[in-house]
Specification:
Elements lengths: L20 E5 L7 E7 L2 E10 L4 H5 L6 E8 L11 H4 L4 H15 L4 H4 L3 E10 L4 H22 L12 E8 L5 E3 L3 H6 L2 E8 L4 E8 L6 H26 L3
Parallel strand pairs: 4-5
Antiparallel strand pairs: 1-2, 2-3, 3-5, 6-7, 6-8, 8-9
Helix pairs in contact: 3-5, 5-7
C-alpha cells in the first residue's frame, strides 16, 4: 500500500505503517507461557497459566472440553498520571471489563476447547506502558503466550497437539481530524481521532470482531473500507511477526 498523503505522521510513519513490533518470549518464568509484546511504546506482558479443572458452570451443565478466560489491567505506572488499581475501587472499571471480554472472545474463536480437555487456561494481560492500542497488542501477544503454553502441555503429554485452529491478531485504524486514514494509532493520534476502529482477525483471513465508532463524528462507507483494508494489511504483518517469535515456517 502507498501513502497518499505527503505529510508524515508525528512519528514519521506512513499511513499504512505499523509501529515497530517486538515479542520477548518467556518473560514470566512461573507462567505456563508468556511474552512481552511491544507495539512501539505500548508494552504489555501476556501470560497464560493452566488449571486442571473447569468452571463450576461447565460441570453443572455437563459441558465437555475446557475453558479459557482473560483478565486485563493497566498497571498504576503505565500512564503519565498514576492509574488507581481496580482493587482500590473494589470493582473493575468498565473499560477494563470490556477489553478483557474482547480478549477472551478473540482467543476462544480460534481454539478447539474440546481438544484442550477438562482444564481452564487463564490469560493475564498487564499493561506496563500505554501509548495507544493496548487491547490490540494484548490480543496479538496473548496468542504467542498461549501457543508457548500449549507447547508445554504437549511436551508434558497432557494434550496430543495444540488446540489452536489458527493464529489471531488485532490492530487499530482511524480517521484523523484532517480526514486521513491511518494504521496502528499511538496515543496522540487515538486521543484526537475522529474515528477509531479495532479489528481482530484469524490467520485464515476471516474476521473475528470489528469495533468502530465516530468520536463526535461520522464516517463514510469509503472510509470504512479503507480502514478495513489497512487493518487487514496490518494483521498480515502481525501474523508474520508472531511466526518469527514462535520460529514457525
Amino acid at each position: 500500500m502507498s501513502d497518499s498523503s505527503p505529510q508524515p505522521r508525528a512519528d514519521g510513519r506512513a499511513s499504512d505503517q505499523l509501529r515497530p513490533v517486538r515479542f520477548t518470549p518467556h518473560i514470566a518464568p512461573h507462567a505456563t507461557g508468556s511474552v512481552l509484546v511491544e507495539f512501539g511504546r505500548t508494552r504489555v506482558i501476556c501470560a497464560a497459566m493452566v488449571e486442571e479443572s473447569v468452571p463450576r458452570w461447565m460441570k453443572d451443565q455437563k459441558v465437555s472440553g475446557g475453558w479459557l478466560t482473560a483478565e486485563y489491567s493497566m498497571l498504576p505506572y503505565s500512564t503519565l498520571d498514576r492509574k488507581a488499581r481496580d482493587i482500590s475501587k473494589l470493582k473493575l472499571d468498565g473499560r477494563s471489563q470490556e477489553i478483557q471480554r474482547l480478549i477472551g472472545r478473540a482467543l476462544r474463536a480460534v481454539i478447539d476447547l474440546e481438544k484442550l480437555g477438562p482444564r481452564t487456561v487463564w490469560v493475564d494481560c498487564d499493561v506496563l506502558q500505554a501509548d495507544g492500542g493496548t487491547r490490540t497488542a494484548s490480543i496479538t501477544g496473548a496468542y504467542v503466550a498461549l501457543e508457548l503454553a500449549f507447547r508445554k502441555l504437549v511436551a508434558n503429554g497432557l494434550i496430543p497437539a495444540t488446540p489452536f485452529q489458527q493464529a489471531v491478531a488485532a490492530v487499530s485504524c482511524g480517521v484523523l481530524q484532517n480526514g486521513r486514514v491511518v494504521l496502528d494509532l499511538d496515543y496522540v493520534e487515538d486521543s484526537a481521532a475522529a474515528v477509531d476502529l479495532n479489528l481482530v482477525a484469524g490467520s485464515d483471513g476471516r474476521l473475528i470482531e470489528i469495533q468502530a465508532s465516530g468520536e463526535e463524528s461520522t464516517f463514510s462507507q469509503e472510509q470504512l473500507l479503507e480502514m478495513l483494508g489497512l487493518a487487514r494489511h496490518g494483521t498480515r504483518q502481525l501474523f508474520e511477526a508472531q511466526c518469527q517469535a514462535l520460529q514457525l515456517p
